[in-house]
Amino acid sequence: MPPPAAGAHGPVTPQTSATCAGSVSLCVVICCYTTERWDIASRGMDAVARQLGADDRLIVVVDHNEDLRRRLERRFDGDATPALRADQIVIADNTFANGLSGARNAGLALATEDVVVFLDDDAVARPDALSEVRAAFADDTTLAIGGGVHADWAGATPGWFPDEFGWVVGCDYRGIAADGAEIRNPIGAAMAARRAELTKIGGFDSELGRVGSVPAGCEETLMGIELGRAFPDGHILRRSAFGVDHRVPENRADLRYFLSRCRHEGQSKAVLSKLAGPSSALSAEVTFLATTVTTGIARYLGQLVRGDLTAAARLAMLLVGVAMTVLGTAVGSVTGRASKATEPATPPSDPVSVDDLVSVVIPTVGRDFLPSTVHAVLAQDHPNLQVIVVDNRPERGDARMLVSGITDARLRVVDQPHPGVSAARNAGIAAANGRVIAFTDDDAIPDIDWVTRIVQTFAADTTGTLGVVSGRVFTAGSTNEIQGWFEATGMFDKGPDPTVWSMNPAAAHQVLGDEGPTGVFFPYVAGQFGSGNNMAFTREALESIGGFDERLGTGTPSRGGEDLDSFRAAILAGWTICYRPEMIVRHHHRDTMAALRAQCYGYGTGMAASLTKVLGSRHALGVLKCMPLGLWLVFSPKSSRNEIFPDAWPRHLRVIEQLGYLAGPLLYLRTHARLRNRRRCSTPSGKP
């Protein structure tokens, strides 16, 4: 910790060194709401004043506290005023919603400089902190940065406080990203962003963030997510040399505050999931649970074995903190504001017509069935067609070789070197030109009118909310005994009745089919909606759900569940799903026992992995409510779900699937960590 300023109100001199020349201009915004932090806030303002350049300003925003405003005006209007030009210091009122987000927006509205630096009123910038900000934004691709936030405990650090929960007191923590790494969002006590870009996304959402002493948060998380979405070529980085000492008062070294902060953080995550979507809102949290928490448990157990008895308290609080945060998320998902996710989807301005271009995406690893699938799709009776084969093992070249003899101009082959059917489908979506995008597998044969049935179904919708259609799947050709077993289970064939599901049912949907059952598992399990080898989406629906989740699906450790996840995401986003039995695909079922074993295991891991994802979202409570019944259906030999298996179905196949259910959550967390590391490695650090 650096030495304190020479007197809380002593004279300070603005920075005039050559480092300011030609650099970006900074506007430092400090938001205050209470006189109780006067001493530390004064030290923080003085520390900033020492580092301001000739083109920089300090804006102090007062959040609805007249006594505090008058005191600040006296401080900066007399002998005790730091040696700043009059135009370099602004005392302003929060003219927006009460709370930290509103106060920051008030500061942003007054800023005219290139970069806005946000510091808390209980944080003191370390020497050269602002020089690091200037250096970071010398790179034009830098959108925002987060600094190093060092805990300045008023007393001794509590022995029970786990290092992994430094975020509870707004500080760095064990597991935080390394210096220079790409981050989802900064810690609010020390962060900076380009003014123009931050203004473009609307600043901070007032539904999130601290209001007075209520320890809510996540407003900077939403800021980071929206900056990344609006400016995908930019970077949000951690720059630890942009450092502050963040005061932690004695009342925060208290168990009650710890539990309250965890609960409020969970509730804020629930609101954030509604605003930004669960994948974005909880991506870092899943990694935190999978890596930081699990290694923290091992770390404290090791300390305990070595004789450190206080490690038992830290271990206990680590687990209690996680549980309280999860509970807060579950409560917030119920008590938070009405979800945008269940509002009806916005109808497209131009309805789908029967003449629209349809792009058919076929992911493949170069299996021998591929040419038959491609020929069957090209033979469709729909005249406006594009066929995209995505080679998911391009280094081998098998897929290109298999279709090299097909010269139809409607066929295109694209490469996706990252393994997994979701990554391959997303590559196909990126290459597609169609208003409707259909999917089938490289071991399936669609009937000749398959695409026609797809566009007819979309065109028949008068509500504009139909986003997904699926169809019936039969076996292709004659079957051996093993394929016959699978066909008898009806896992692919959803029956002869046209059916419609929606979170917002409408009478106009009846033209598409009868309203589907909405029992205790609706819409979380999602298996009733269809299967990935026979499905189609409008482009608008795919864009609204962000395509397919690359943590799920064949080719990843989770082995499946990506189609269920896409169905679930679409219906929760307000889209209607329609199953049409006349939309037929014929599938080559697994024909060996080894292949069937792998498929059964993948069904278990995929379903469990996709539900694990939901547990990290605002819909966690809905899944938890139906979990006891779901476990009984999966594991009880007398359940109706297990009665669908034919008498000849080997018992060990059910056991293998059940083992998959047990392994699925861990496999999902592992895949999430791998994908996050891959994206970090493929993104430049952005360091100048």
TrEMBL record:
The keyword Transferase applies. InterPro entries: Glyco_trans_2-like, Glycosyltransf_2, Nucleotide-diphossugar_trans. Residues 27-196, 359-469 form the Glycosyltransferase 2-like domain. Coiled coil: none annotated. One of its GO terms (molecular function) is glycosyltransferase activity. It holds the Pfam family Glycos_transf_2. Keywords: Glycosyltransferase, Transferase. Its EC number is 2.4.-.-. PANTHER family: GLYCOSYLTRANSFERASE (PTHR43685), GLYCOSYLTRANSFERASE 2-LIKE DOMAIN-CONTAINING PROTEIN (PTHR43685:SF2). This is Glycosyltransferase. It comes from Gordonia prachuapensis. The lineage of its organism: Bacteria, Bacillati, Actinomycetota, Actinomycetes, Mycobacteriales.
